[in-house]
Amino acid sequence: MDDRIGRLRHKHHNIKPRSAAAQDGSNIKLLDCDLGIENHVTNIKSHSAAAQDGSNIKLIECGLDIENHITPEILDEIQNVGNVYRLSAPMGHVDSHAPVSSLVNCLEASHMEEPDIKMNKEMSGQGGAKDHESSKDSSKNVMPTDYFSKEPTCNSNVQKLACTIGDVLIVDDLFAARSVVDKLQGEYRHHVHACDTEVADIDVKKESPVGHGRVICFSIYCGPNTDFGNGKTCIWVDVMDSNAELLGVFKSYFEDPSIKKVWHNYSFDRHVLANHGITPAGLYADTMQLARLWHSGRKGTGGSYSLESLTSDIEAMNGVHKWDRKTLMKKTSMMDLFGTYKIKKDGTQGSIKFIPPVEELQTSEALRDKWICYSAGDALCTWRLWESLHGQLSKRHWIFQDKVQGSMYTFYDKYWRPFGELLVEMEGHGMLVDRPYLAEIEKVACKEREISIQRFRRWVGEHCCYANYINVTSDAQIRQLLFGGFYGVEMCRSFKVPNIDGYIEEGKKAPLKYRSINICGIGKKLPCDLFTSGGLPAVSMQALRNLAGKVSVDYLTADDEEPFIPGEADAILTSAGAQGSQKLDDLHQEDLSAYGQAYSAFGGGHEGKEACRAIAALCEVSAIDTLISGFIQPLQGGDIIGPDNRVHCSLNLNTETGRLSARRPNLQLELRLLAHLANCKSMLEAFKIGGDFHSRTAMNMYDNVKKAVDRGDVLLEWEPKEGEDVPPAPLLKDVFASERRKAKMLNFSIAYGKTARGLSKDWKVSLKDAQATVDLWYKDRHEVRDWQEMQKMNARSMHCVHTLLGRARHFPRVSGSEFMSGRIERAAINTPVQGSAADVAMLAMLELWRNKELKELGWKLLLQVHDEMILEGPSDNAPYAKDLVVKAMSHPFDGKNILRVDLAVEAKYAKNWYAAK
DNA sequence: TATAGGCGCGCC
DNA sequence: AAAGGGCGCGCCTATA
């Protein structure tokens, strides 16, 4: 099936499982476990070797004792490359294999990427055999020139395809089907089989393949050294309509776990086949995941990991076996093959292409052959892509725990292949959702939303005649209204909005669907301290809150009786006094300090309050919107609910750092991993002691805070004990609130590579002051700085960094100035942290999934959301299952915990998600 | 009128 | 010159 699905389905990723209530009568409970990574100190040390490209000397110069770790294979590779890698140890950390892994990647890069860069140039230019000759000696991967010809050598559409109709055995009767299955499961059972289905009755943009879609044909290719009759190597099976029974003939084949099957985006095909009662087994590889592991940062439109995109990519196909390259053809898209222009009424050709329904392609006499080639070509391309990526990943060393564990293909076999199966199972299993309950919630939320909108419009109406037309969810319109005329926002601007009350424009007879309105600034200069990256005043929740203050929306009583005293508030606020506010509070039993910056901007008093309340109402709308569109609606959407009435998410591994796109890693976890990766003594200790991490950070940053803590003047944190209702001393977070706030900000920012420059902008302090604060943070965390410098150096010299498990993220080779922009440096710092968090979460999931006892007890992994796992199972054995889960999760490294310190796991069980929280 | 890309935002 | 990572969504604009 077309692989665009992987990309188009991303709508479902956003499902926020947090709101899902699994309810299944009385028998189901959720086990909710927090995976907290305790401060496991391991001997993985931050390495400090940097390799730089030198010139033509074969030399490894190295201040570290790394030779011992270099395997003969690696040495062989090093010596086969005529470049120099100079390893130095600027920072004093030694004893690490990271340099080796970096070196290996660097070496690979040298004989994989460089030649390709040249060849790419040739392709865009004249491209000839001569040019290739010249680059031959620098590369052992020089390919025949015809491999690079992007344009097919003949004009017929059919021959543009990866195979021709003559290569394809068309199976459309029982006899042929049985004979093919016999060969597949007999003679060719040890081959690698690439499979692909074509599916009708599904809208991949909207629907989950779980419970949607019908297979109309499929194709199988198991390598060039096969013959299914008359030298035909591709199999194409028609299972549409009257041929539907043929699918059943292949059931045993698809379900045979001993046959190695390769798919591109396995998830889709597997779910669709499941709709026909077939449970495919024997997953050998998913080429989409292989490609993600091979290179995590593919960009571009049309689905960077689509079969089409990958098979068109010279680098991706670089590992295809030599004798295949000559005949290699990329997959051609459906649009290119079958897209036709609509003919307009006047007979001219339109500009919009459309593709006939797949059933039509298959039955139309004119198109059928082309369709068969297209479909069969998918299996062929998948097979070749697998061959290529298998070859390439097999050449990359996988280094983990200071040892070469095998190749990155070993990594795939060990982790991502089973993880892929696990994810597909989770998707298929889905989650029972209390839809009536959600519907009720939605009703209430919408009602409150409407009230808040009205509240806001009422206020807008005093300043703008289009109050009813304004789209309150449009940041552009809100920005125009609040800041028009200031901060570089023009005074007035027109917007196209739905014509809700049938306004008829001048000169028109009937109302149009849309009309334009002119939104002007309210004319008061509101203070603004937050700006968007584009330099415009921000209208984010935080920005709005600054304006509104902490006031509640106060829907019903808009304090109409409140006497309006002009100037009153100005006096109060400019005296900026706690006393001033206090006085007023006494007068009105109201805390005026709750009002935000809009209060005085509107002259205080009634106007000021109204402005604050209106803006607060806007905040309310925004909050409700995130709730509704974030999860209340997606969880009820018919498109993801299968016939089993369960919600089926789409879980993708398709992110740069390797985390699931449906999941949201918890920052604390990431901070812990940073502590671990950098082997930062101070942070590890802070986590070990527990308590308020940010307060502790503040204490370590500021001497006066530390002294106050030491003297017992303030408490780092306080847990009420029996008989105590007041802390024996004030808390740090109250006394040194601003210090703690800064510490907290830094804790969250540093892991992402935020610079002093960025902080100075945020805090509106000088660069120098910001830098000083950052330095304070690093004061007792110098290991973090060293580690970050290491990562940056690796990114610069090796063009990649690694996660805990040894997955690489590659960076493009860019010029020095581009590198200096910092984007890559920041990613280099962040990826090991985010990516390692993803690694650990994956390991924990695999551990649970593989646990036989849990399976026998009837417990299934439902979802994983940030650092939590959610399982579902029978309540009678829940306490026991909980213990099993804790045990499994605290030993996520193949049933062991290779870390020096325990992984702390908290687990709870409850009837549903809400109860667990 | 449909679609793609840019931007701003919320979330972790 | 800019300097916070990645992701998904909704709005807006340009384009055909």
Span of the ends, CA to CA:
40 Å
Based on secondary structure, the structural category is alpha+beta
Overall shape: it is globular
Main β-sheet, in a few words?
Answer: 6 strands, mixed
Helical content (DSSP H or I, runs of 4+): 40-55%
Q: Approximately what portion of the residues adopt beta-strand conformation? A: 5-15%
Q: What is the count of β-strands?
A: 23
Rg on CA atoms, Å: 32 Å
Average pLDDT confidence is 74
Low-confidence stretches: 1-159, 556-587, 662-666
Strand order of the largest sheet: 5-8-7-6-9-10
Number of helices: 37
What does this structure look like?
With 917 residues, this protein is an alpha+beta fold. Among the domains are: 50-88 and 98-136, no CATH class; 439-632, no CATH class; 681-780, no CATH class. The chain is 44% helix and 13% strand. The protein is built from 37 helices and 23 strands. It has a 6-stranded mixed beta sheet with strand order 5-8-7-6-9-10. Strands 21-22-1-23 form a 4-stranded antiparallel beta sheet. Helix 2 (72-79) links the parallel strand 3 and strand 4. It starts with a helix and ends with a helix. Residues 1-159, 556-587 and 662-666 have low confidence and may be disordered. It binds a DNA duplex (12 and 16 nucleotides) through helix 18, helix 23, helix 24, helix 29 and helix 30.
